[in-house]
Design a protein that fits this description.
Length: 498
């Protein structure tokens, strides 16, 4: 199959895949997970042992596959502070190793922190001291959306929402993708770290600027400035890629190398970030502050479940956006062989409601959109699915329950509820349109614009088809061995420092 060709469904493994070695017991490998020191941006201070987006193959995965990566002790940003005992223990261990303590001492610090962790006591939820939402938040889309807690208006006979034990995310929202009516929400305007779901805004900003068949030869400077441990699709310097290839890398493998290459084509990272912020403002996404184009953790970088739903809804108007976000698997250009012929390797979408996993099936009718996971953000996910004539958007941010694929499981529960409840609830708000069409208060600026915008969105979504994904089995390791992996990493890192 040629470079960049798309497969809508395939087997669990691809013959051409360049994969990391099989994970040993005790290794977190969410396709795969990679954790290492953070260098999110030149302007931001490096946080010790910050975990980065584990949605794709990382640069350090091959070099440290034999070590057991683990959750980081990096302090969270003010937007999404982390308070669980396990990351705290990891931080103690990392500091001990860097300050010259023997490995045994550092390991003991890590173990002592783990013994106090509620996770090891069998508790399914995060620390009860988890941060509370602000008492007042933005009211764009309706006053109830700025009120803390769950907002839903059930009519008689409407199904109840799943309980708090089933929906543990700090923030979530489920809405009708066509009308924009919000069926239910919890803290939708809470400003939290977005992880790679921010790539939806990046795509909506940059995608219209370059034709799919345009080619670009990657320069070393194009890949400069990526955060350590960034998720990568595997772009090589001095090789050429089409824009089509690069967007497959962004959506399927959440490749920060693809994001930085496209940003370089767009005038550089700084220019792209400025344009993304301007685009967020145009979309009435006032909860969003952009620092990096790829969603990598950075101080002050925040968005909200409401804004992420706006980005998805706007992006889905673009046929190319719909194609990439609904693609389950594809072939990506590899090395150049004899005679200049390029090899290819298979890549698979890390959206688990699209591609499936050993503990979750592809969601019926799923058609995108984007997932992410970082230290500060936890797991984040925005998805669109259709059932009959109904199309729903759901966004889930940072579930308190730290189980494998939890964000997807909670998103699926919200979609299940939404498809049954859509005609049996009163909306608690709405997704507003861009400023050119909508001032965010409910009034439409120009007669007919709101109607035309709705019809445009509806027409676009009508052509959004689901894609059955391939299954893949991934191991999930234990916290103790993972923390010991952090200690070993910190010791090796200290030895490399001048």
């Amino acid at each position: 199959m040629g470079s960049g060709s798309i497969r809508r469904s395939a087997g669990a493994l691809f013959r051409g895949v360049l994969s990391a070695p099989r994970a040993k017991a005790g290794t977190f490998t969410d396709v795969p997970t990679t954790f290492c020191a953070s260098t999110a941006s030149p302007a931001s201070p490096a946080s010790p042992l910050a975990a980065t987006d584990p949605t794709a193959l990382s640069a350090s995965a091959a070099a440290s596959a034999s070590a057991a990566p683990a959750a980081s002790g990096a302090p969270a940003t003010s937007a999404a502070p982390t308070s669980s005992a396990a990351p705290s223990a990891a931080g103690k261990a990392g500091r001990a190793a860097r300050n010259g303590f023997p490995l045994r001492t550092a390991a003991a610090l890590a173990a002592s922190g783990l013994l106090a962790s509620p996770l090891l006591a069998g508790t399914a939820h995060a620390d009860p001291k988890a941060p509370a939402p602000p008492s007042t938040m933005s009211q764009i889309g309706g006053g109830r959306l700025g009120t803390p807690g769950v907002q839903v208006a059930l009519r008689p006979g409407a199904p109840k929402l799943p309980g708090p034990d089933a929906l543990t995310a700090r923030s979530w929202i489920v809405s009708d993708a066509e009308s924009g009516k919000v069926l239910a929400a919890k803290n939708p305007h809470w400003r939290l770290a977005p992880a790679s779901t921010l790539k939806m805004l990046f795509a909506d900003t940059v995608m219209p600027k370059f034709p799919k068949n345009q080619k670009h030869t990657v320069k070393p400077a194009d890949l400069a400035g990526m955060g350590a441990g960034s998720s990568l699709v595997g772009i090589k310097e001095n090789l050429s890629y089409t824009v089509h290839d690069l967007w497959l890398g962004v959506f399927l493998r959440s490749g920060n190398d693809a994001v930085h290459t496209l940003s370089a084509m767009n005038g550089g990272t700084k220019t792209t970030v400025t344009q993304m912020q301007q685009r967020a403002k145009e979309l009435n996404a006032n909860d969003t502050h952009v620092v990096t184009p790829d969603g990598y953790d950075a101080p002050g970088q925040v968005s909200s479940a409401y804004d992420l739903s706006l980005f998805a809804r706007q992006g889905l108007r673009n046929a190319d956006f719909r194609e990439y976000c609904s693609t389950a698997s594809a072939q990506f250009p590899g090395d150049e062989g004899k005679g200049g012929k390029r090899a290819t390797f298979g890549i698979q979408n890390t959206n688990r409601l699209l591609s499936g996993d050993y503990d979750i099936k592809p969601y019926p009718g799923i058609a995108g959109v984007k997932n992410g996971s970082t230290t500060n953000a936890g797991s984040t996910f925005t998805g669109v699915a259709h059932r009959g004539d109904r199309k729903l958007l759901v966004t889930v941010m940072n579930p308190e329950k730290k189980e494998h694929n939890e964000a997807y499981k909670e998103a699926a529960k919200l979609l299940d509820w939404g498809f049954v409840a859509a005609d049996k609830v009163d909306p608690v708000g709405r997704l507003v349109g861009p400023r050119s069409e909508d001032d965010g208060t409910g009034a439409v600026k120009a007669k007919g614009k709101g109607k035309d915008a709705h019809e445009s969105t509806q027409a676009a979504l009508n052509s959004t088809g689901g894609a059955n994904g391939a299954w893949t089995a991934v191991g999930v390791g234990s916290g103790v061995l993972a923390l010991l992996g952090i200690v070993a990493f910190a010791v090796r890192r200290r030895r490399r420092l001048p």
